[in-house]
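As promised in the previous annual report, we have extended the structural survey to additional targets. Below is the entry for Type IV pilus assembly protein PilV.
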Amino acid sequence: MMKCLLLRKFSSDNSGFTLVEVLVALTIFSIGLLALAGMQITGITGNTRAQSLTAKTALADGVVEEFLAMDGDDANLLTAVTDSAWTTVDIEGAGTCNVLVSVVVDPVIDGTTHTGLSQITVTASNPKPPNVVKTVMKRRF
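The corresponding structure token record, generated without further manual editing, is:
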């Protein structure tokens, strides 16, 4: 009778995992980790691009503000230029950013000449696309 109870106890206790079940679970787990690694790479790439774009936008906004703060009779507003190098700045995380400025005196928009205005276009660029382009109008006197 004692022998029967011992055999039945060992034979009915199936609460463990087999080696095949463990291997299948580890395989599924490793595939999930690989997917997470891919998402991490995508996130880092996106953050790098966003940092570069933010730096170029801030730089272009700064140059636009410089032009808007100029007096209406400033020589920079009275002389037409195309893609003139304004500044080059090294920004941590974004690299070397170049700013080009174009000024159109008395611009023609939709067939109408706007006398007394200067159209300023600021382009901030670095090796990472896209470039940032800002265009504003400034009244001259």
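The CA atoms of residues 107 and 113 lie 6 Å apart. Residues 19-139 form one domain. These points will be discussed at the next consortium meeting with the crystallography subgroup.
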